[in-house]
Structure formats: C-alpha cells, structure tokens
Amino acid sequence: DDSELVMKGNWIYPGNDLGEATNQSTYAACRIQCFKEEQCKAFSWNRKTDSCSLKSSIDSAGEYDPNADSGHRG
Asked: Disordered: where is this region (predicted)?
C-alpha cells in the first residue's frame, strides 16, 4: 500500500539520488517506482522532462519548483 507516500505538489528534493533518474510519464508511475524500492525515502518527478529521481533521504525541506511534484514516506 503506497498510501504512506505523502505528495508535495510543485516541489523538488535536490540531491541524495538513488542511482540514475528514470523516464516515467506520470507522477503515479514515479510514486510506484519509489514504493517498490525499499531504500527509497522520497522522490521527485519533473513533468516537463518526465524524469523520476528516487531519493535515499531528504536532508532539507526541499524547494519550490513549478515543473516538479515530489513525495516522501510519511
């Protein structure tokens, strides 16, 4: 159940990437990818580039980005 992942719209978490970003066509697909990866604590999805970055941790609160949506484990 991926309901433990909390969404933050128009937000990005920089750094702490788990490997290379992947191409995901939707926020939901990126969310599922994070949920399936045990080490994923957060993720950021860029709607302009369809880039999905899984995060091993979030050191900061993140920052506003009008092209991104993110999520983190609650």
From this structure: 52-74
**The sheet that has 22-23: what strands, in order across it?**
5-12, 63-73, 42-46, 51-55, 22-23
Does the pLDDT of residue 7 top 90, yes or no?
yes
Q: Write the pLDDT tens digit of every residue in 54-74.
A: 999 998 889 999 999 999 988
CATH number of the structural domain spanning residue 28: 3.50.4.10
> Would you state the pLDDT for residue 4?
82
C-alpha to C-alpha distance for 74 and 41, rounded to whole angstroms: 9
Q: How many domains does the chain have?
A: 1
Structural domain span for residue 23:
2-73
Residues sharing a CB contact under 8 Å with residue 12, sequence separation 6 or more, in sequence order? 44, 46, 62, 63, 64, 65, 68, 70
3-state class (DSSP) for residue 24: coil
